[in-house]
Design goal:
The complex is a heterotrimer of chains A (440), B (162) and C (480).
Chain A (H helix, E strand, L loop, with lengths): L18 H6 L4 H9 L2 H11 L11 H5 L10 E7 L9 H7 L1 H15 L1 E8 L5 H15 L15 E6 L9 H8 L23 E5 H13 L1 H5 L9 E8 L5 E6 L4 H8 L9 E5 L8 E2 L10 H6 L8 E6 L4 H15 L5 H21 L3 H12 L7 H16 L1 H10 L10 H5 L8
Parallel strand pairs in A: 1-2, 1-4, 2-3, 5-9
Antiparallel strand pairs in A: 5-6, 7-8, 7-9
Chain B lengths: L7 H4 L1 H9 L10 H12 L4 H11 L3 H10 L11 E6 L2 H5 L2 H12 L12 E6 L11 E3 L2 E3 L4 H10 L2
Parallel strand pairs in B: 1-2
Antiparallel strand pairs in B: 1-3, 3-4
Chain C lengths: L2 E4 L2 E4 L6 H7 L23 E5 L5 E5 L10 E3 L3 H16 L15 H9 L17 E2 L4 E3 L9 H8 L6 E4 L6 E4 L13 H5 L5 E3 L11 E7 L8 E7 L18 E4 L12 H4 L1 H5 L7 E3 L2 E3 L1 H14 L3 E6 L4 H11 L4 E5 L24 H8 L12 E5 L13 E6 L11 E4 L8 E4 L5 E4 L12 H9 L7
Parallel strand pairs in C: 1-5, 16-17, 16-18, 18-19, 19-20
Antiparallel strand pairs in C: 1-2, 3-4, 3-5, 6-7, 7-10, 8-9, 11-12, 12-13, 14-15, 14-20, 21-22
Helix pairs in contact in C: 2-3, 8-11, 9-10, 9-11
The chains are: A alpha/beta (440), B alpha+beta (162), C alpha+beta (480).
């Protein structure tokens, strides 16, 4: 285990997601504690004191977001769990939804109690079928047991919870696009101001938090902020569910305590690279986080400040390990194709810029690149920096700049020689075969 | 009229009303996507008569539904093959062989991504990250994820799909 | 009221204004495409991004159209970084924009042309072929869209959602294959305000089929006028060939015809909008004209016909007049002054709603389809038309009266601008000028008076109604 777990604290079996087993693990105990011994503001204080940062990618302090919601302002408040999990490389919220859905429900009840919420939502990407069925079944269990839909523990607090499914749009994972989708429209992100905590769902005060972030609320209330802060580091308390994939020997979801050494995680807990290959690059937090080289990863510990200083970010916790022999130009091509496909099309820099970058990289890969193309890609990235409605344009730009900065020799080689330095290979495992020897 | 012959939206009305009960009042617009998902699951696509029925039931402008259907990749307005093979082409799946899988599928079925086999059994699509990178490469067949695929496993899967 | 600074100069702002609104009101121009004073803020073109000093020696930047004003904030709109960002934004807008200016109706009044000239003016740097899309895709019987030219500002979609209420235009799909489309049930065809989207489109994407390729805008001049389509009296501009650019080689009628009608912005009456009936004023004013005076259907000299009419008026014992509700304030006053004492006058509803025409709505359209009935009734009362026993002369001024309703035996003087069979049935027919051939005023249903001016010269054999009334009231001969 990469450090102290807070979420993945029980063995996953065929039945461990059911209500009876959740109760046996102490589930819904934090809810009872809060509703019988704490006021809503006390729950918020505990979450704020715990110092937890959002786990969706932006790492915004949760307490600071919640503090904007004014109690008793005469307006409905809404709470939305972001289960869109569209960031490539990320599949960790899925672990919660499939294996511990009641923890999310209990956490949302706690959060709803703190924020004065009557109606809460889980926005889940439309492609997730098993997670949807598991969570929906858990919600029905919770309704039947009286946790949802009925006033709780003698207080006036009652909450309904509904899953709204997405239908194939990455930007619906952006909080304002998510709410616009819940409103039954195209998932167009919104300009700020107004902040969503002031005018969110149907222009009412709304808190949107990632599934993993919310799942920590039950943990914080149960063990207390002080005990929570003993896990992790001062700046990054608690843990991160890390989804690791790519050319790693043991891909999967791991709970990593903040501060854990990155190299140890990669090469011990995750079994290192397949076939013992060299780590060429690491996408640390979904493809929107700047790529690190193998050398960059030498002395990093898994926490926010350290990764920020290294010029990247923990992001969504979606790690992709890239082995020597992978063509970084083609990898960037896959990424730019993705952003081009997912641009909602509202704002000029992203709508035109993503298509432009995609067409440039396609031209490079087809052997018709020019040296000026690299500067052009960087210029388009800069034109998207801070000028767009949502963060996708910026993210695509940062990733592009990162790839070109760290692997410039490969890009220049491709342009000058009209072919990849690595044979255009992405699927290293196949190319290297069982003997670990490169083919053609 | 027997249930099976009723227009799809009418047939699904009890489900829609149950959902409505868990929503605040005046949240009809929120019901657009859940209703479209259920209609498509029933019919295989969303028909013009479904749009008309939903406009009447939810009281939203028709244009809102048309926009939603065009914007989201999972909705379709025409029927497709019985088995929708959606192969992820994103970063990790590409790094674990999805390109070869798609080529193999295209070759076996004789269609290109975006097309349907002549016998109406299979439609092949390339999709973006499905959130299953740890078990790449992944192909979503209708609503189910098929993970840790190889060409052999794909052959076996196709054999099982009638 | 907050005060803030733009480029070092203090600016006064009204509560609730954004930086863009306050800047424009104070005369500081910040370029934009998607913002419109009468529509919600979309904030998608990104052209209006400005810098704001952060108080620590640096700046942050954001779109001005959505930026709330804080007391003392220091906004910079002309720094090098702001100017470079505008160039980049224009570069991206122009990335896939077809260079159609040579064949595009919008040239000369195009926001993209203007901004490019002002802020960019450079050659494209892209090495990629432009994204193509549908060109001249029909959105309705009246409007086409060239999707390649469209910059997806969403002004048109916001218009049908927020102003006309038809919700009939929207952006379909996404990314750089987004397309503006009309809803499939034909609601855009039925939207009586559809043509306003042509005005508000910042480029030559949305175009009027009627106006397509009709004229370059710099050859036309706008003359202020008032739409006579209903009692709202929206003010309009009637565009027609500038005299100094008159066509010599083509049909000369093109020098004296209506090329297009656009709204003349009027906060008190119609804001910046008009309905489609106002766009189609040529359908009213350019119907075949009566240019020849007639005596019992036989052509006559105007002077001779006027003299005969004067005699009829003098001889009549019980003359009745049906006054036109399309008469201008001036014409109505003249009638009152000259003939009001002699003739019993009733105000006629020249126009009634056509089959299928919108009677009334919440936007602009009013049920009375006559522009000046209020002013006419103020002078002549609102009694329904009835002919007293012994009526021996009826002076019919303007259209809309069924001659079958005339009293037996009465003589008829008919004043009309357009060719009608009834012209030949009158004892005296006098062709009169249309609204576009004289100056005048209408009073709308709320009492607001608006001016219209002459666009064209009246033809030789046609008289102004005012001159006719004067002639009918005197005993002297009046020159034609």
């Amino acid at each position: 285990m990469p450090g102290t777990p807070l979420l993945m604290t029980f063995p996953v079996t065929a039945t461990s997601h059911l209500l009876a087993e959740y109760l046996a693990r102490g589930g819904y105990g934090a809810l009872e504690k809060a509703l019988t011994t704490m006021q809503p503001v006390d729950v918020t204080k505990e979450v704020t004191a715990a110092g937890i940062l959002g786990h969706g990618g932006a790492a915004f302090p949760v307490g600071r977001k919640w503090a904007v919601i004014k109690p008793n302002d005469g307006q409905p408040h809404y709470l939305c769990a972001n289960a869109d999990e569209g960031e490539p490389g990320t599949f960790k919220d899925r672990w919660v939804l499939e294996n511990n859905p009641h923890q999310l429900i209990e956490s949302m009840l706690l959060s709803g109690y703190a924020l004065g919420v009557r109606n809460a939502f889980v926005y889940m990407r439309g492609e997730f079928d098993m997670p949807y069925r598991r969570l929906q079944a858990a919600i029905e269990e919770a309704y039947a047991a009286g946790y949802l839909g009925k006033p709780l523990h003698g207080t006036g607090f009652v909450m309904d919870l509904v899953i709204i499914q997405g239908a194939g749009s990455y930007v619906c994972g952006e909080a304002s696009g998510l709410l616009t989708s819940i409103e039954g429209k195209k998932g167009y992100p919104r300009n700020r101001p107004p902040r969503l905590t002031v005018k969110g769902l149907y222009l009412r005060p709304t808190v949107v938090n990632n599934v993993e972030t919310l799942s920590n609320v039950a943990v914080i209330v149960r063990m207390g902020a002080e005990a929570f802060r003993k896990v992790g580091t001062a700046r990054s308390p608690g843990t991160q569910l890390v989804s690791i994939s790519g050319h790693i020997a043991k891909p999967g979801v791991y709970e990593v305590e903040h501060g854990y050494p990155l190299k140890k995680f990669l090469f011990e807990d995750c079994g290192g690279m397949i076939g013992g290959r060299k780590l060429k690059g690491l996408i640390p937090g979904g493809i929107s986080a700047k790529v690190l080289t193998g050398e960059d990863c030498e002395n990093l510990t898994y926490e926010h400040g350290v990764f920020d200083k290294a010029g990247s970010a923990l992001g969504s916790g979606g790690m992709i390990a890239i082995a020597e022999g992978t063509c970084m130009v083609r990898l960037l091509q896959v990424m730019l194709r993705f952003w081009h496909h997912e641009s909602c099309g509202q704002c000029t820099p992203c709508r035109e810029g993503m298509g432009w970058m995609h067409r440039i990289i396609d031209r490079i890969v087809s052997g018709q690149g020019r040296m000026e193309d690299l500067d052009q890609l960087i210029a388009i990235s800069n034109a998207n920096d801070g000028t767009t409605i949502c963060g996708m344009g910026d993210a695509a730009g940062y990733a592009t700049v990162g790839f070109i900065a760290k692997f410039r020799d490969e890009f220049e080689f491709f342009i000058q020689n009209k072919r990849s330095k690595c044979g255009g290979v992405l699927d290293v495992a196949e190319s290297f075969g069982a003997a670990g020897v490169a083919h053609a | 009229m027997s249930v099976a012959l009723m227009p799809v939206v009418e047939r699904l009305m009890p489900e829609f009303e149950a959902l409505k009960k868990r929503l605040p009042p005046n949240f009809e617009s929120t019901m657009v996507m859940p209703c479209l998902h259920r209609v498509q699951a029933e019919r295989g696509y969303v028909a013009d008569e479904d749009i008309v029925a939903l406009v009447g039931y939810l009281g939203v402008p028709r244009m809102q539904i048309e926009q939603v259907l065009s914007y989201y990749t999972m909705f379709r307005r025409k029927p497709i093959g019985r088995w929708h093979l959606q192969a992820c082409r994103n970063v990790t799946c590409s790094m674990r062989g999805s390109e070869r899988l798609v080529d193999a599928l295209a070759g076996k079925l004789g269609i290109k991504p975006g097309e349907t086999t002549a016998d109406g059994r299979f439609t092949l699509s390339e999709v973006e990250c499905l959130g299953s990178c740890g078990t790449a490469p992944v192909v979503m067949v209708n609503e189910a994820y098929h993970e840790n695929l190889s060409i052999e496993k794909l052959d076996e899967l196709l054999g099982r799909l009638s | 009221m907050p005060d803030f600074f733009i480029n070092g100069q203090p600016v006064h702002a009204e509560p609730g204004q954004t930086v863009l609104q306050a800047a424009l009101a104070a005369g500081h121009y910040i370029p934009y495409f998607c913002w419109h004073p009468n529509l919600s803020v979309a904030g998608n073109c990104r052209m209006c991004i400005v810098d704001v000093e952060d108080g620590k020696g640096g700046t942050w930047s954001e779109i001005a159209c959505n930026m709330p004003i804080e007391e003392g904030m220091k906004v910079l709109t002309e720094t090098e970084s702001v100017r470079n960002r505008r160039k980049e934004t224009l570069q991206l807008i122009l990335l896939n924009h077809p260079v159609d200016c040579g064949i595009c109706d919008k040239a000369g009044e195009c926001m993209l042309q203007d901004q490019h000239y002002e802020y960019h003016g450079e050659r494209p740097v892209s090495f990629e072929p432009k994204v193509t899309a549908t060109k001249f895709h029909s959105l309705s019987e009246r409007i086409v869209i060239d999707n390649e030219r469209c910059i997806l500002c969403s002004r048109c979609t916001r218009f049908t959602a927020e102003v006309s209420g038809s919700h009939s235009l929207a952006i379909q799909f996404r990314g750089d294959h987004s397309l503006v489309r009309a809803v499939e049930d034909g609601a855009f065809d039925r939207d009586p305000y559809s043509d306003n989207v042509v005005d508000i489109c910042p480029v030559g994407a949305l175009l009027s089929k009627d106006f397509m390729y009709r004229s370059r805008v710099w050859y036309m001049k706008p003359t202020p006028s008032v739409c006579p389509g209903c009692e709202r009296g929206c003010t309009v501009n009637i565009w027609h060939r500038k005299p100094e650019w008159k066509l010599n080689a083509l049909d000369p009628r093109r020098n004296a015809s209506i090329d297009r009608v656009t709204p003349l912005e009027n906060p008190a009456v119609n804001g910046p909008w008009i309905c489609n009936k106002g766009r189609d004023l040529a359908k009213i004013f350019e119907r075949p004209r009566a240019e020849q005076a007639l005596l019992k259907g036989k052509p006559a000299e105007l002077a001779e016909a006027m003299a005969r009419a004067r005699d009829l008026v003098t001889e009549a014992k019980r003359p009745v007049a049906l006054v036109s509700s399309w008469g201008s304030n001036e014409e109505l006053a003249a009638f009152k002054a000259m003939l009001g004492a002699r003739l019993t006058a009733f105000v006629k509803h020249d126009a009634v709603p056509a089959p299928g025409e919108v009677i009334e709505d919440k936007v602009l359209i009013r049920p009375d389809k006559n522009p000046n009935r209020r002013a006419a009734e103020a002078l002549f009362g609102a009694a329904p038309i009835s002919f007293p026993e012994g009526t021996d002369l009826v002076l019919v001024w303007g259209e809309g009266f069924n001659f079958a309703g005339l009293p037996r035996g009465a003589k008829v003087i008919f004043l009309n601008s357009y060719l009608r069979p009834e012209n030949g049935h009158a004892d005296v027919f006098l062709p009169i000028s249309a609204q576009t051939e004289r100056n005048g005023h209408y009073t709308n249903f709320e009492g607001t008076v608006s001016e219209f001016r002459a666009c064209f010269a009246r033809k030789a054999g046609v008289a102004d109604a005012e001159a006719v009334f004067a002639a009918l009231a005197t005993r002297e001969r009046v020159a034609a």
